[in-house]
Amino acid sequence: MTLDIQRLRDLLAEATPGPWEASFDGYMIGNSVSVKMTGANGEHITNRLVLSEQSRGDTALVAAAVNALPQLLAIADAAIALRYATWADMDGTHVREALLREFVAAVDAARKAGT
Q1: Mind listing the pLDDT tens digit for each residue in 88-112?
Q2: What single DSSP character describes residue 92?
């Protein structure tokens, strides 16, 4: 599988603004539980019934992945820039150092967002 960063960026731009939240209200129909997905300011994304605990986990994973995606894309962008600068600017140590600082800053921002 190839990582298509631009496709992820496009999908994120088209999606309901985040942060997303998956909530499980405990409403039951038979063995199914009601799940509600909301975006920024409580904007409705979807309601659905899930059939298993795994489906609840899938829903929570989708919300967490959408919320983490901006930071993950920033890390990927910084890593790609650093990698290509290493080859394209062999004598420009200062360029690599600046890009390395940007990469570290992106990783630190993602780490802080996760706390």
Answers
A1: 555 556 667 777 788 788 888 877 8
A2: -
Q: Are 104 and 39 in contact (CB under 8 A)?
A: no
Among 83, 87, 82, which Cα is nearest to 100's?
82
Bridge partner list, 32: 29
What percentage of the chain exceeds 70 in pLDDT? 71
Per-residue pLDDT, 112: 80
Using the structure block, give the residue that is written with the tokens 């921002």: 109
**Residue 23 · residue 50 · CB < 8 Å:** no
Angle, CA of 35, 39 and 41, to the nearest 5°: 120
- Enter the tokens of residue 57: 């986990």
**Residue that is written with structure tokens 């509600």 in the block:** 36
What is the Cα–Cα distance from 103 to 38, expressed in whole angstroms? 31
User: Three-state SS for 34?
Assistant: strand
pTM beyond 0.90: the answer is no
Helix (H, G, I), strand (E, B) or coil at 23: strand
